[in-house]
Design goal:
97 residues, mainly beta, 39% strand
């Protein structure tokens, strides 16, 4: 559990909305990835040698005038294969919107 961040009278908390262990074999299909190097760089992101920890978070902001839940969503990408040609919006297109 993350501790809330306090900025004066404002408090920001992280809320875990979901979690799943995703198989590395399903990530970056057709691409060469050195998963051992990736695990060495970011060990907290992996469940074991074959899967990574997928977390979905939102934020709760509390202040003297009320409380808000902020969920940034998945962005302009479809929910799968955002790197694949023809899969939908690009990162550049997301910033043009």
């Amino acid at each position: 559990m993350h501790q809330p961040l306090r900025l004066g009278s404002i408090e920001v908390s992280v809320v875990c909305e979901g979690y799943s262990a995703f198989a590395l074999d399903d990530e970056m299909p057709g691409e060469e990835v050195d998963w051992a190097a990736e695990r060495a760089r970011t060990p907290w992101a992996y469940v074991d040698d074959r899967s990574w920890a997928w977390h979905v978070h939102a934020f709760v902001v509390r202040g003297p005038r009320g409380t808000a839940v902020i969920d940034t969503g998945v962005g302009a990408y479809p929910p799968y294969r955002p790197w694949a040609p023809g899969s939908g919006a690009t990162a550049a297109a997301a910033f043009e919107a």
